[in-house]
Amino acid sequence: MQLVSVWSPKGGSGKTTLALHLAGAMVARGVSVLLVDLDPQWSAKLISETGSLPFSVLPGWPTSEPKVDVIVADYAPGYSEAPEVGTVVVPMQPSPLDMNSAMRALEVLRRSEGLKVIRVLNMVDLREIEQRDLAAYCLRQREVEKIVKRRSVYRRSLGAGHTVHSAEASTLHGAREAKGEVDALLDMIL
């Protein structure tokens, strides 16, 4: 069983959104998934109750080992609990404050040997010159491994209780492009 954690010390970086869409992409590839919601707000759990996600969402770690291929862990913001094994996706918004916080957080992750860390510049609006330039710079300097654009389809599909990989979301504007972004990130993970 593989563990994929989505973790960042800052709130609002898009952890839950990425975790849910990654889990949906895994299921679309035939991977069995359990998403554990470790944030006391339980946003992922609430979304799972409003729609028909193709995977289960638990509020907290399971009490026994689940029979799934992958556990996706949606961590609460902060340093009190950080992943120590598996793959860690670290989303950060394209702003100096968010990026500085995330880069400092990487020091916490470097203490655990064997972690695979994927840094994601998340919710990037390429229409804004500053964000476009920052994204290009970060990729060129290898400060991030992946860029995920700001797309309303991510929020709209989750608002209906689905991921961009669901049949229900396939008619939404931007769903095809969003699926491609999530699939590219998943290729880095698996």
TrEMBL record:
InterPro entries: CobQ/CobB/MinD/ParA_Nub-bd_dom, DNA_Partitioning_ATPase, P-loop_NTPase. Residues 5-154 form the CobQ/CobB/MinD/ParA nucleotide binding domain. It comes from the Bacteria. This is ParA family protein. The lineage of its organism: Bacteria, Pseudomonadati, Thermodesulfobacteriota, Desulfovibrionia, Desulfovibrionales.
